[in-house]
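Quick check before the chapter quiz. The format below is the same one you will see on the exam, so make sure you can read both the input and the output lines.
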Amino acid sequence: MTSRLFARPGLVAPFKAAIAALLALSLVACRSTELTTAGLLPFAAPQSVGAVTGEAEIRGQSTLVLDYASGRTLYEEAADGLRYPASLTKMMTLYLLFEAIGEGRLSLDSELRVSENAASKPPAKIGLEPGTTIRVRDAAQAIAVKSANDVATAIAENLGGSEAGFAAAMTAKARSLGMSRTQFANASGLPDPRQISTARDMSTLGRALLSRFPQYASLFSVTEFEYGGKRFKATNKLVGKVPGVDGLKTGYIRDAGFHLVATAKRGGRRIIVVVMGGEKGRDRDAKVTALIDQYLGAARFAER
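Here is the expected output.
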């Protein structure tokens, strides 16, 4: 299934005008922010919202199953152990992007400028060229499906003025959502020892992303999309294969292992499953599938 998420709206103000019209965005504890032509620059540095102490365990394994409706934890194993979140990070990148759209600070057809820094990020990427632009709607789809690092950095630089500035806003938003053991250093999840989180915090983020922005849920349920004449397949291999699975996000770096935050609905009930630190992608996928079957029942009850 190729993405057909967004209908094209009518006349949309140019991106520069949208940026010039930005209003101050409140962060944790009602901290104010300053809008400049370079983006949204938080006054507060990441440590001002409480730096997380400790080191992430290399390829540490964690598991958590969350009931979506109630937020109740159904199963957990090492759910509070510090882990490198890898590309699960991009759920927060999208959260802040969707928030900016909802507040009218940009639109789905706003153009994000691509810097040399963004274009230079290693794969996964969609091959953005420096000096070009990408529409917000395409950027969101590229993150959700392909987990594109070049796109994540472009979003960060356009919204935050710099990736460091955006990471500060990400960390502050994490605190406001109750993610007490998460700290962000970049928008992509590429290796950085300061970028840490937990399975519990990632389940909190996944639930918040779906509940606050249900209009974008279909972003995560497509199996491929096209951009720039190329076709990109989804990194989440359970979508379209395991009945009831309709998102959310995969992640991998060498020191993290294979991660997946998955959401599934069967028999009218939805759960979020977090598995972090899988030795192989297929092992991670098998574990997530088994947990979905265990807590939602047989696949014959799946809702498509």
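If your answer matched, good. Residues 1-37, 40-47 have pLDDT under 50 and may be disordered.
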